[in-house]
Amino acid sequence: MGAAWLAHGQAGRRQGATEVSPAHAQVIPLYRQDNSHPQARVCAQCEVRRSALFGALDAAGLDQIHSHIASLTLAPGDTVYQRGELGAAVYTVRSGVVRFERVTERGDRRIVRLAGQGDLIGQESVLQRVHGDDAVACTEVELCRIPCHLLSDMSAREPALLHELMSRWQNALDAAETWVTDLTTGPARRRVLRLLLKLCDYTSAQGEIWLPSRDEMGAMLDMSVETASRLISALRREGVLQTPGLRTVRVARDGLVRVLAAEDV
Amino acid sequence: MGAAWLAHGQAGRRQGATEVSPAHAQVIPLYRQDNSHPQARVCAQCEVRRSALFGALDAAGLDQIHSHIASLTLAPGDTVYQRGELGAAVYTVRSGVVRFERVTERGDRRIVRLAGQGDLIGQESVLQRVHGDDAVACTEVELCRIPCHLLSDMSAREPALLHELMSRWQNALDAAETWVTDLTTGPARRRVLRLLLKLCDYTSAQGEIWLPSRDEMGAMLDMSVETASRLISALRREGVLQTPGLRTVRVARDGLVRVLAAEDV
DNA sequence: CGAGCCGTTGAGGGGATTCAAGCTCAGTGG
DNA sequence: CCACTGAGCTTGAATCCCCTCAACGGCTCG
Fold first, then answer.
1. Which of A19, A39, A125, B99 gives A87 a disulfide partner, CB atoms 3.0 to 4.6 angstroms apart?
2. DSSP category for residue A98
3. Strand D atom within 7 Å of A83 CB
4. Which of residues 211-250 of B touch A (CB under 8 A)?
5. Any CB–CB contact under 8 A between B10 and chain A?
């Protein structure tokens, strides 16, 4: 009863946050090569492949697609796409953090979600819909660009790909709803702590995580720049935090959890 | 180039909020009937069909499914499903408002999204995933229950159904992100006004809309019950609002827009 | 009729914003 | 080389918004 491809469950990612992937893969500027095998080899070795969109494909499947997939690197502040644009591709995040932001009718921007390693972004392009928000690189970001027509072609033969695609949609939906409960609820201090906790899972270079600018924190947590600064400073004074660089934080994950639990007085 | 079913764009719903559907369809307790045609007739006449999941199906397709689809009616407060459950069906909202809520680790609940007429809920069941939040009826709610195995069966033959399904996922994602920008941003008064504006689009009985309990408003907008009460009372005193019943509001949509615009002093 | 739930309103306190002034640091040109 | 500049971070002071605590009224229900 029923097509098999719709069955076979898969748990949501980044739940336990224990799936620590090492550092960066070998970065080769590959773009579109005539000799197709090098790219296929890169894909096969890619450490995010098992968690990425094409993780379901076998070696034969990979051979067909590698020549169409482009790898690109973005600097902090670069935009992947903008709200209102009609995209022709989706992207897999290979490393780094991407933010999704919208502009309220009053003119101030609001960050509504983050994407990290293994996440698929811009899926609305598959449906020929315009992007609903701006996608901007927070850190240095490595992406794989997958043309939509490639997805259409492959999904006809590989039903598992559609399952995977829908699974990504559910991941994004879950992330957006978790955003509401975690980062828009309660007093400012608790929101900051929860944000740091979440960032631990996104940029897990083991202790050294990416720290957003105070302005970004304000846009994520709906607070003023000054409040964000004050709270980070307070956490630093309390010893929960160290800031070696201006954009990096040393923090112990379970330390955060402990401080967060102590908030319930 | 590419399978045709992935193309053919479709705009997001409830954007202009001008698609005013009349009142309720004829409500017939139908559940599963041996004579299959009556249900098919009901489906064909259903006013939400064009916007619903099976809107893409023709009459022949409807004939195959009607006997598996159950219609159910929920009272305010009834739960459709609960977080952690593994559902075996998805639901189309025929009328009424459904809320999605989660419980923060501190124990207080938070409403993260609403669903209304034409929306599909519980789609994570298609992926064999457990529900991520509780789905609870806010008003009286009429649902169509669609078993997952039915979706699996049909989607193999009707590729348009998969497109429609993914489209629903994108709708939900967009709704969740809009929730962040509209209802979790800015001072309490503005959040209340935006909520009322949103409710105009969900229960558009032309002027008479559903008013949540103060407790629900608190869970939606992250504010105390008292603040919600105060703000509603203030709007009533200002003449923006009338509350004929305790759970209904008379309000002019453009009046709300005007007041909202006047907030930017 | 009392109990309980929900909505309303008041008083007080605390947390976040706003306005403001220094601060560090990188880039620039004298 | 170093003052100048501007952007981003920090900190202070005053204001105000919102929460908490509290009391009260209307309503339903046992």
1. A125
2. E
3. no
4. 222
5. yes
pLDDT digits (tens, 9 = 90+) for B172-183: 999 999 999 999
pLDDT tens readout for residues A234-253:
999 999 999 988 889 999 99
Residue B1 predicted with pLDDT over 70: no
d(CA B92, CA B113): 16
**Long-range contacts of B211-218, Cβ-Cβ distance < 8 Å, separation of 24 or more:** B211/B243, B211/B246, B211/B247, B211/B248, B211/B249, B212/B138, B213/B247, B216/B99, B216/B111, B216/B138, B217/B192
A172's tokens: 């994004």
Is the per-residue pLDDT at A134 higher than 70?
yes
A9–B124 CB contact, under 8 Å = no
Task: Please list the alpha-helical segments (H only) found in chain B.
Answer: 37-45, 59-65, 148-157, 159-183, 188-202, 214-221, 225-237, 253-261
DSSP state of A205: B
- For residue A35, give every residue at least 6 positions away whose Cβ sits within 8 Å of its Cβ, in sequence order, or none: none
Q: Is there a contact between A223 and A216 (Cβ–Cβ < 8 Å)?
A: no
pLDDT at residue A75, as a whole number: 94
Phi, psi of A210 (to 5 degrees): -75, 130
**What are the tens digits of pLDDT across the range B37-57?**
566 666 666 656 666 677 666
CA distance A123 to A162: 12
Sign of the dihedral defined by the CA atoms of residues A261, B113, A109, A140, in that order: positive
Phi, psi of B66 (to 5 degrees): -60, -30
Whether the CB-CB separation of A200 and A17 falls below 8 Å is answered with: yes
For A201-228, how does the pLDDT look when each residue is reduced to its tens digit (9 = 90+)? 988 667 789 999 999 999 999 999 999 9
Tokens 């607070």, located at residue: A223
Rg from Cα positions in chain A: 19
Residues 214-253 of A with CB under 7 A from strand D: 214-215, 225-226, 229-230, 232-233, 236, 243, 246
Question: What pLDDT, on the 0 to 100 scale, is given for residue A152?
Answer: 87
